[in-house]
Amino acid sequence: MLSSWYSTILAAALLCSSSTPIHAVPLSGGDIEPRQTTSKYCASSGVCYLQIVPNSASNPTFRISIPDTASSGSAFDTVLQITAPVALGWAGFAWGGGMTLNPLTVAWPNGNTGKVTVSSRWSSGRTLPGQYSGATYKTLSSSRNTTHWSIEVACTGCSKWSGGALSTTSINTFAWAVSRTAVSQPASTGSSFSIHSNVGMFSSDLSSAKTPASVFQQYVKTATG
Ligand code: HEM
Ligand SMILES: *[C@@H]1O[C@H](CO)[C@@H](O)[C@H](O)[C@H]1NC(C)=O
Description:
Bound molecules: protoporphyrin IX containing FE, 2-acetamido-2-deoxy-beta-D-glucopyranose
Signal peptide: 1-24
Protein name: DOMON domain-containing protein
CATH architecture: Sandwich
InterPro entries: Cellobiose_DH-like_cyt (IPR015920), DOMON_domain (IPR005018)
CATH superfamily: Cellobiose dehydrogenase, cytochrome domain
Oligomer: single chain
Strand content: 35-45%
Keywords: Signal
Number of strands: 15
Pfam family, one: CDH-cyt
Number of helices: 2
């Protein structure tokens, strides 16, 4: 009994110390994001988020929230917050865990206006994603200072798409991408931009992201952008 317990622990320790990060995607030229750690964050607004804090300060923090009434496979609004170091020209979030065939939320600072532009994208290949009308956004807040730019959006259409949907009960895989190069037309949601310098993936259920539906809806409704 003791020895089987011990070998289970040993096997788990060996798996955990594997030198190949499970959720990092090696790309040439990027500073590779190692193992991603998720946690729960609740703001004073009462909104709670599943958050991914980067292991490297050169990558963004992503937070997502959903109403606690949401059910798997159905359409519900989601909230996404991206806080990125100013050195990043754009940051994107992939709701289905990869570059292709899922809603992409891409954001970039709008020059020196202090505002951040959000753009709805979709890609069927690994080239510049086109604009995607299946998801629409309300900007809840955005800002830029000397160290970071930040945006929080509510998305209608990011929980369900052609070929996929979020699960509110089991594990989802998400992905993100960032570039150090500024986009070509920062004020335009249709701007082109260049390929990422880093990408990452992580898997989690959405239990940490659940916010009482009334709080969630009120938060989205009253935000002034
Ligand atoms: C001009 C824009 C873009 C180009 C040319 C591009 C191109 C590529 C290429 C060639 C790969 C494969 C790299 C490799 O395997 O070495 C890749 C992977 C990836 N890209 Fe992009 N990408 C662009 C924008 C985006 C955006 C906006 C996102 C997310 C919002 C994104 C997310 C990802 C992710 C997560 C991966 C790794 C997983 C996967 O291959 O699906 N990309 N991209
Ligand atoms: C700059 O913005 C970031 C992200 O919103 C924030 O965490 C940080 O406190 C701000 N810094 C200053 C000096 O205001």
